[in-house]
Amino acid sequence: MIKKKWFWILVTALAAAVLSVWLFGGGDAADDTTPVFTVTEGPLTIGITASGSVQSRDKVILRSELEGRNTILWVVEDGVNVKTGDLLVEFDAAALVEKRNDQEITANTAHGNLIIAEERLGVTKGECEGNLLEREVTLDLAKMELEKYEKGDFPEEKRQREADIALADEELQRAAEKLEWSRKLAKEGFLTRTELQADELALRRKEIDLEMAKTKMNVLTNYTVHQKRATLQSNVRKATRAVARTVWQNKSQIRQGETEIVQRSREYYRATNRLAELNFQISKSKIFAPTNGIVLYAATAKRRWWENPIAAGESAVQRQELIYIPLDTGMIVEIMVPESSLNKLEVGMSATVKVDAFPDQVFSGRLTKIGILPDAQSTRLNPDLKMFKCELECDFCDAVVRPGMSCDVELVKETFAKAVYCPIQCVVRIDDDAYVYVQDDSEWELRKVEVGLDNNRMIHILKGVKPGEVVMTAPPVQEEKDEEVNGGDDSDGRGSGSAQ
User: Fold this and answer.
1) Picking from 233-242, 297-306, 341-350, 428-437, which range would have the lowest pLDDT averaged per residue?
2) Phi, psi of 128 (to 5 degrees)
3) Which of 18, 32, 105, 355 shows the greatest Cβ crowding within 10 Å of its Cβ?
4) What are the DSSP E strand ranges found in 235-284?
5) How many domains does the chain have?
6) What number of H helices and E strands is found in the chain?
7) Cα-based torsion angle of the residue sequence 129, 134, 140, 142 in order, rounded to the nearest 10 degrees
């Protein structure tokens, strides 16, 4: 028990001694275990490396044109050569066929309703025309009655009353003359008293007849004519209002009929359009090859690992890209470049391309297009990482490349035949100045240097160190003021690449 205790005491003391030597001894002295690098002078390439894929310059994109999400019943195999008119994809259209049958019934019903509305409008117009004609005839008759009374009945009746007065007055005069002669004869004894009284009574009767004729004339001119005229004029006004009312009623009824026709026409138009759309949808349930070429699944060609390739039983949404058919217009290379490396890119800069299928061949190319906006797919996967799509033209010579092949691309920013360089991690930043730790005999010297571009592995040293000098590859932190250089965030535009 005592031996074990002394053993652990000795082990602890030895460990403390080693730790003290490591912490307080040696200072800045060089140590054989310190990682170092010998500054080298030689060829250096500053550029950007990225993985990409070979794509056709022009291609036919086949999309799903069916509404909503639809199930695939059959799809052609990926990579198969097809000819124009070959069936590529077939969707399940059973639900669409059922909808079309229902829509045909709806369209026929709408057409029948439209015909009924048109016929009803024709009947309404006929009835309106008849009603208006009847009211106009009534108005004409009322006007004729008024005119007849004013120019016919009233003057005739007035003349009749005037004639009655004249006749009564004449008869009264005759009766008066006769009574006068009767009185003379009665005095002489030629007439009896009874006969005389009869003549007096006849005179009285004639006087009454004259008064009655004058009274009738007075009633006619002062009352009857005004009453009759007012009645006939009222009939004319009523008939006039009836005509106007009938005109407005006719307009209203015709307008209602026309409105119904417009409504029925729209229903029929909407029903027929929907029917045509369903027929179009059913016709698009089968996708045929528009040209000769090779079938490429869109998810495979675009290297969308998060999407399942199309297959029987899978579903596709409207406007989803399903198949590409490359056209024989040449090949391009597509790469994704991070936002931090965009300042190194220039349209027209040279590049080297290595296709995985041809590991022993290196193809030359040049950058032709730099994406303006970040790629939406990569942004959706990682919102903090902005990737831009770029395109390169490449001369593949006689190599048989196919769309979708993977490749590695190196875009060359600058090439130095003879440059002094060291690993990028050797350089530290102190107050915006670059420094390296250079081995001087057995000590480490912190030396200021002037640096150029880097390729994420090696950095170009312009001044401060010479080839053959040994520098520390893991320099210590300088009181939180040092900033280790890295290619992705360096303000001088350092990007990825390789030293040659």
Assistant:
1) 297-306
2) -65, -40
3) 355
4) none
5) 2
6) 7, 21
7) -150
Question: Helix, strand, or coil here: 19?
Answer: helix
Contact 494, 56 (CB under 8 A): no
Dihedral angle, C-alpha 385, 370, 411, 354, nearest 10 °: 90
Same domain, 66 and 215: no
Shared-domain flag, residues 275 and 241: yes
Say if CB 49 and CB 332 are below 8 A apart. Answer: no
Residues 103 and 246 in one domain: yes
Strands 69-75 and 315-317: antiparallel
The amino acid at 446: L
Q: What is the pTM of this model?
A: 0.54
Residues in the chain: 500
Which residues pair with residue 409 across a beta bridge? 50, 353
Structure tokens at 349: 């800069």
- 189 plus 255 within the same structural domain: yes
C-alpha 147/C-alpha 153 separation (Å) is: 9
Quote the CA–CA distance of 404 and 323 in Å, as a whole number.
Answer: 13
445: part of which helix (H) or strand (E)? strand 443-454
> Rounded to an integer, what distance in angstroms lies between the CA atom of residue 343 and that of residue 354?
24
Q: At a CB cut-off of 8 Å and minimum separation 6, what does 357 contact?
A: 401, 405
Measure the CA–CA gap between 347 and 337, rounded to whole angstroms. Answer: 14
The Cα–Cα gap between 493 and 500 comes to 20
Same domain? For 103 and 115 the reply is yes
Q: Give the count of alpha carbons within 13 A of 394, CB side only.
A: 33
Residue 256: name the closest of 52, 120, 84 by CA: 120
Residue 54: half-sphere exposure toward Cβ, Cα within 13 Å: 22
- Concatenating the DSSP letter of every residue in 452-499 gives EEE-SSEEEEEES--TT-EEESSPPP-TTTB----TTT-TT-------
Q: What token pair was written down for 480?
A: 């939180």
Model pLDDT, residue 127 = 94
Q: How far apart are CA 40 and CA 435, in angstroms?
A: 17
Answer with the residue of higher pLDDT: 200 or 408: 408
